[in-house]
Amino acid sequence: NAGVTQTPKFQVLKTGQSMTLQCAQDMNHEYMSWYRQDPGMGLRLIHYSVGAGITDQGEVPNGYNVSRSTTEDFPLRLLSAAPSQTSVYFCASTPLGAYEQYFGPGTRLTVT
Amino acid sequence: AQSVTQPDIHITVSEGASLELRCNYSYGATPYLFWYVQSPGQGLQLLLKYFSGDTLVQGIKGFEAEFKRSQSSFNLRKPSVHWSDAAEYFCAVSGGNAGNMLTFGGGTRLMVKP
Fold first, then answer.
1. Distance, in angstroms, between A43 CA and closest chain B CA?
2. What is the CB neighbour count within 10 angstroms for residue A91?
3. How confident is the model over B79-101, as pLDDT tens digits?
4. What DSSP line would sit under chain A, residue for residue?
5. Which terminus of chain A has a smaller tally of CB atoms within 10 A, N or C?
6. What is the pLDDT of residues A35-55, one digit of tens each?
7. Contact between A100 and B34 using a beta-carbon 8 Å cutoff
């Protein structure tokens, strides 16, 4: 199993550009989530999904959209990037009924 | 709402010395508690978890943590630190909410002196 994979690893955007961060898992996990990591703030939940077709907002959802059309994929969309979205983004997945999360390697995003 | 506090932003210890990283949580019911480690430029790896039962839990890499309900704490310990333990450590809590999402502390960066 590849586990949780994320692409790209690095990305630089200009303010106002849009992009999609990809996340995929091959473990058939029901739950998937997106976090952003900023210095001194730990990881904060952006959006999460408890199954295909079901998504909900986390702590810091503004400026981000998600959808979950398959169990495997959970992309994160930035519609109009802002410098405040400069961060490291982590995708995670959890099996149904479990609590520990399995994290991807992260995407480092810089918005200039 | 649940929250996690890691009071120490940076800690430096000598190789071979003992280590304790502090974690305090706020949650109304029985929490599910975790410690993760992040090496530079890497993702997060689960060190250990506490759900119920024995309040002293063992994890990977020789780490252990003790759940103290009366102090709302879940401190991470290691008796003898190795240079490879230099990393950032995150404490997290799950309240059993939908999707079992985690609330993280701000992290503690551990540096190890030779």
1. 6
2. 28
3. 999 999 999 999 999 876 666 78
4. ---EEEE-SEEEE-TT--EEEEEEESS--SEEEEEEE-TTS-EEEEEEEEETTEEEE-SS-TTEEE--SSSSB--EEESS--GGG-EEEEEEEE-TT----EE---EEEEE-
5. N
6. 999 988 889 999 999 999 999
7. yes
